[in-house]
Amino acid sequence: MVTEKMNPDRKVYGTYSNRDFNRPIPEFEFPEEGMAARAAYEMIHEELNLDGIPELNLATFVTTYMEPEARALFMENAHKNFIDSFEYPQIKKEEIRIVNILSRLYNAPENTEFTGASTIGSSESIMLALLAHKWNWREKMKKQKKDVSRPNIVFGADTHVVWDKFAKYFDVEPRVVPLDSKTLVADPERLVSMVDENTIAVGAVMGTTFTGAFDDVGKINALLEKLKEEKGIDVPVHVDAASAGFITPFIEPDLKWDFRLSHVKSINVSGHKFGLVYPGIGWLLFKDKSDLPDDLVFYVNYLGNDMPTYTLNFSKSSSNIAPQYYNIIRLGKSGYRRIAENMMSNARYLGENLGKIKNLEVISNADHIPVVTFKQKSRDTYDLFELSSAIRSYGWIVPAYALPADASETVLMRVVVRESFSRDMADLFLDSLKKAMDSLSGKHVKKSGVSPRKGHPVS
Ligand SMILES: *Cc1c(COP(=O)(O)O)cnc(C)c1O
Q1: Are 206 and 217 in contact (CB under 8 A)?
Q2: CB of 123 closer than 6 A to ligand 1?
Q3: How many other CB atoms are there within 10 angstroms of residue 306's CB atom?
Q4: Domain at 257, CATH number
Q5: Does the CB atom of residue 95 touch ligand 1 within 6 A?
Q6: Rounded to two decimals, what is the model's pTM?
Q7: Short-list 361, 363, 383, 381, CA closest to 373
């Protein structure tokens, strides 16, 4: 979204000495006339060169590399509206295949129809999953003639912002458990102690965005089983596996976090994170067909046929579906495992070497997913926000941020090691980091980046 009123008199000028285009156009008003395709293309293309370089963006979990074949499939399907499955039944078939493949990967029981959907990303998946749980809760309460006016949802402060967004948009009271300052996730006991009969669901995260740590889903599940046994309160768990869903099944297959656990009723995963597809795709899976209330499914009558849909949006491009299926058949489990192991080993290499740098302390070093976080051991002449800006001048994008309560005194930097981050790049990054730290530690540069000699730029 945007809330900025810009000056209508501002102009933009073409590049390449206006070869095809010799007058400026208003920047913030619809131009009266058009221009040559080449001129428009060049103008936009050149301007966008000033964006950060995606491969050097160590802040993001989201895919920046696909093979040329996957890229070709991306473009070949961009102009098919995914909702039109009667016109484009083949791309729909790939969604059905992937929902089946992921349901089985997450150990959904075979005695049900696999139920799930492709989405725009984990955020849409999470909202749809929680909406289903809200609906199920309300039906259950209505049957028992109980009050349905005060639903709540329990999750840790280690969750992604979309959980707060859901609570606000869908009018559900958020019960947020502060971060345990040791484990940096929500303490399962504390989490389950906040559950009552108005709780629509409990959230668990597989790979927090803060440190990459995992909530203890097994423990949460055991505590909920106990609660059900003792008090008859039966609450589903939604597992947010946005980042781990394409990692853990391959490298830690024995870790039980998925539909093998009794209370886990829905899971989301971002296809555009370690599913290795360009941005714009997520997956939502339900354990059982009955976990998605039929009341929420809309049957779109399109050209005389009824098609079930469960989405927040309507039209979207089909471009991400085919590359997702491509990756699955091209890589297989062994390919995803190999890539995950490479990323983990590169991340650990980076973590080990970060730990050797003076005054840096590694907080998490690829424990489950290839994320490395580190902090300053003691207060330096500069902080990590300044280091984050300084390293940007070498092209690297690495965020610095404070953890949520109760660990908010901790400021971290985080590196997400993706497939495109090689061992060689780790060395280059370490080198840039040391240089940035040297320059910040005071001798010739002041914090403002301006030299002591009155306002002369630093050379
Ligand atoms: C990235 C992420 C999200 C949001 O996912 P999108 O696919 O970007 O919508 C939610 N939860 C977690 C844990 C994430 O890492």
Answers
A1: yes
A2: yes
A3: 9
A4: 3.40.640.10
A5: no
A6: 0.92
A7: 363
CA nearest neighbour of 272 among 12, 40, 43, 54: 54
**pLDDT one-digit tens code per residue, 224-260:** 999 999 999 999 999 999 999 999 999 999 999 999 9
- Angstrom distances, CA of residue 236 to CA of 76, 181, 217, 286, 292: 40, 26, 12, 11, 12
How many domains does the chain fold into? 2
Q: With the CA atoms of 13, 15, 21 and 24 taken in that order, what torsion angle do they form, in degrees rounded to the nearest 10?
A: 0
Does residue 437 form part of some domain? no
Between CA 319 and CA 235 the distance in angstroms is 37
Q: Tell whether 425 is covered by a domain.
A: no
Place of tokens 């610095």: 400
Domain co-membership, 150 together with 23: no
Atom 14 (ligand 1) nearest CA: 242
Residue type, 258: D
CA 130/CA 132 separation, integer angstroms: 5
What is the DSSP pairing of strand 173-177 with strand 237-240? unpaired
Structural domain including 170 reads 70-327
Give the pLDDT confidence of 40-70 residue by residue, as tens digits. Answer: 888 899 899 999 899 889 999 999 999 999 9
Q: For residues 35 and 165, state if they share a domain.
A: no
C-alpha dihedral, 180 to 184 to 186 to 190, nearest 10° = -20
Of all protein residues, the one whose alpha carbon is nearest to atom 1 of ligand 1 is 242
Q: Is 122 in the pocket of ligand 1 (CB under 6 A)?
A: yes
- Contact in structure between 130 and 153 (CB atoms under 8 Å): yes
